[in-house]
Amino acid sequence: MAAVPTLRLRIAALLEARGMNAHQLHHATGGRLPMSTTYELLKPDRVRVRLDQLALVADALEVGPADLFEYRPGKRRG
Questions:
Q1: Phi, psi of 53 (to 5 degrees)
Q2: pLDDT the model gives residue 63
Q3: If 0-12 CB within 10 Å is exposed, 13-18 middle and 19+ buried, where does residue 68 land?
Q4: pLDDT for the residue 40
Q5: Which of 4, 8, 60, 73 could bond 44 through an S-S bridge, CB–CB 3.0 to 4.6 Å?
Q6: Helix 51-61 and helix 11-18: axis angle, to 10°?
Q7: Averaged in consecutive runs of 10 residues, what is the pLDDT profile of the chain (78 residues)?
Q8: Are 5 and 69 contacting, i.e. CB atoms less than 8 angstroms apart?
Q9: What is the rounded distance in angstroms from the CA atom of residue 74 to the CA atom of residue 17?
Q10: Distance separating alpha carbons of residues 24 and 40, to the nearest angstrom
């Protein structure tokens, strides 16, 4: 059976590397990202995300959208 590829959010790791917390991220977005959403985006296994919210985070952290994710491919067949 082939392994399933996974895609996880890296926002918490990016904040940690910058010495930031959720409250600081909220302020870095100009308050456009609600605190409740900010905390939810720190969960790496979150299933649903909004692209506009990810754009706010990427802009606030000065990274590209791909930097917000960790991708682990599944095993390829054949």
A1: -70, -40
A2: 98
A3: buried
A4: 95
A5: 8
A6: 20
A7: 85 98 98 96 91 98 97 78
A8: no
A9: 27
A10: 15
Q: What is the chain written as a DSSP string?
A: -PPPPEEEE-HHHHHHHHT--HHHHHHHTTT-S-HHHHHHHT-TT-----HHHHHHHHHHHT--GGGGEEEEPPPPP-
Residues paired with 72 in a beta bridge: 6
Question: And the tokens for 49?
Answer: 């995300």
pTM (2 d.p.) = 0.87
Q: Which residues contact 47 (CB under 8 A, 6 or more apart)?
A: none
pLDDT of amino acid 4:
87
Listed in sequence order, the residues at least 6 apart from 69 whose beta carbon sits closer than 8 Å to its beta carbon are 7, 8, 9, 10
Q: Please give the angle made by the CA atoms of 67, 5 and 19, to the nearest 5 degrees.
A: 30
